[in-house]
Amino acid sequence: FTSAPTLEKEHTLTLRWTTVEGDVKTASVTCTPEVDPALQ
């Protein structure tokens, strides 16, 4: 992230996909965006 979309420090990304067998898989990734000081 080059900038924080909201004031929240942590963001949870939920990935959802379907396998070739037809199973639905989900995964959650929690990330903490940091603003590059050079871009401010």
Architecture overview:
- The structure is a single chain.
- The protein is 0% helix and 40% strand.
- It is built from no helices and 2 strands.
- The model has no long low-confidence stretch (mean pLDDT 79).
List the helices and strands and how they pair.
Elements: E1 11-18, E2 24-31
Antiparallel strand pairs: 1-2
Shape: elongated
Multimerization state: single chain
Count of helical regions:
0
How does the major sheet shape up? 2 strands, antiparallel
Strand fraction equals 35-45%
Q: How many β-strands, per DSSP?
A: 2
Determine the structural class based on helices, strands and strand pairing: mainly beta
Report the order of strands and helices.
EE
Question: What is the residue-averaged pLDDT?
Answer: 79
Overall helicity: under 10%
| Cα separation of the termini | 13 Å
The strand line-up of the biggest sheet is 1-2
Low-confidence stretches: none
Radius of gyration: 15 Å
Explain briefly what this protein structure is.
The chain is an all-beta fold. The chain is built from no helices and 2 strands. The protein is elongated, with a radius of gyration of 15 Å.
